[in-house]
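pls design
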């Protein structure tokens, strides 16, 4: 664990609250906060879990209402021909352009992250049948590990585990040490869900390709927070959540990315009618579309694709570089506050200090954090808890202010102080 010995305490001068207000005053994205539901009504004191479930946008509320009345209610079945059939791809292209560094025709909105992971990973290993191994890491999100374990059993493949540091993440050196002529696929997360560690996608992708393997990146904790350059980095496959930093709402469908050159080489395992060349031909046999459409299976979940569009539009408007700059400033500020207020209470930083290696959340470690989290939720301060002893502070760049960060961190300090004092 890292001691907070080098945090720039000047960030907190002359006092933390004044510093927070000055940072808000100078924040070029400050005005976006008022475009979210619940940021101005004083209901929640501090929301630190936009990395698990983003807040709704006001535009999204309007869009959903309009859709129910005019779209669904007014257009009825005609809506499919007029707009909905193409929606997975029009939103996918917009997301690719705004946040992923992906040219059109490669990104789509599909099923849940879990199901998309299965479909794309299965398609990848099936495309390299002479290879027998999947590389993954021990600290990836459970669903990623479980899905790959299932595929390995289904296809008779071997899982090659990288032991990752739970306070950091997987390095290019670790990947280089395990890939080889038997590696079919490498699956890793861009931002580690526990520590916030930011993996070097370009370097790791190059290493995997040098070994002749394909890569699948899980972007759940980076999409909408940390920019990617999927095309430029030569990424083969990616999946990611839309209900975290993209504010699509609980259970909104995930996105998938398949590099154009690979699309016709890959056949996904859930061969449904929505993935074929001519959907309404209703033909006798499955003939997958030549495009990214082949990765769809059944009827697209249109209602779930509504709200995310407004966050994608906001990102397109302000630019991912500005989003990332704010994200780094927020995590820097939270770390400075933790040094000032929480180090004296025995808290350690379980996330990278270097902003270049850090995503949009930080984890603070102390044995009492489970109890601290429960107490904070009662007080309308909402972080989340991950074992062992980790309080996750997720700072969604478009909806979180520096003052909110300051108020929430003060509540963490007070709760921890009360709980450890009681003992
Ligand atoms: C949140 C998250 C998921 C969630 O998958 P669902 O299918 O949406 O439940 C998967 N992987 C990672 C890395 C995540 O952070």
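designed seq:
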């Amino acid at each position: 664990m890292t001691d907070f010995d080098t945090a720039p305490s000047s960030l907190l001068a002359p006092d933390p609250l004044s510093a927070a207000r000055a940072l808000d005053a100078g924040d070029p994205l400050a005005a976006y906060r008022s475009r979210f539901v619940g940021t101005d009504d004083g209901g929640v004191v501090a929301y630190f879990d936009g990395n698990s479930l983003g807040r709704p946008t006001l535009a999204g509320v309007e869009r959903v209402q309009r859709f129910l009345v005019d779209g669904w209610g007014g257009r009825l079945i005609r809506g499919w021909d007029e707009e909905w059939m193409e929606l997975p791809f029009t939103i996918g292209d917009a997301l690719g352009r705004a946040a992923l560094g992906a040219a059109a025709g490669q990104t789509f909105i599909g099923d849940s992250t879990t199901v998309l992971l299965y479909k794309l990973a299965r398609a990848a290993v099936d495309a390299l049948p002479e290879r027998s191994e999947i590389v993954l890491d021990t600290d990836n999100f459970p669903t990623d590990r479980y899905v790959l374990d299932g595929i390995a059993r289904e296809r008779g493949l071997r899982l090659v585990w990288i032991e990752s540091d739970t306070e950091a993440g997987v390095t290019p050196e670790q990947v280089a040490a395990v890939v080889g002529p038997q590696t079919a696929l490498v699956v890793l997360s861009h931002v580690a869900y526990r520590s916030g560690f930011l993996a070097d996608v370009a370097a790791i992708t190059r290493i995997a390709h040098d070994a002749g393997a394909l890569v699948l990146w899980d972007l759940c904790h980076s999409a909408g927070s940390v920019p990617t350059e999927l095309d430029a980095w030569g990424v083969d496959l990616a999946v990611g959540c839309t209900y975290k930093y993209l504010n699509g709402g609980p259970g909104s469908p995930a996105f998938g990315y398949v590099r154009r050159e690979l699309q016709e080489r890959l056949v996904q395992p859930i061969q449904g009618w929505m993935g074929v060349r001519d959907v309404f031909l209703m033909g006798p046999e499955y003939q997958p579309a030549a495009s990214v459409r082949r990765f769809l299976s059944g009827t697209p979940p249109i209602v779930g694709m509504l709200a995310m569009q407004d966050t994608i539009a906001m990102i397109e408007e302000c630019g991912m570089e500005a989003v990332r700059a704010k994200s780094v400033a927020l995590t820097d500020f939270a770390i400075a506050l933790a040094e000032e207020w929480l180090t004296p209470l025995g808290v350690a930083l379980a996330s990278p200090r270097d902003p270049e290696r850090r995503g949009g959340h930080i984890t603070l470690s102390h044995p009492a954090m489970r109890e601290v989290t429960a107490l904070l939720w009662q007080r309308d301060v909402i972080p989340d808890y991950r074992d062992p002893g980790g309080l996750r502070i997720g700072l969604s760049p478009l909806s979180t202010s520096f003052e909110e960060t300051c108020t929430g961190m003060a509540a963490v300090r007070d709760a921890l102080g009360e709980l450890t004092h009681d003992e």
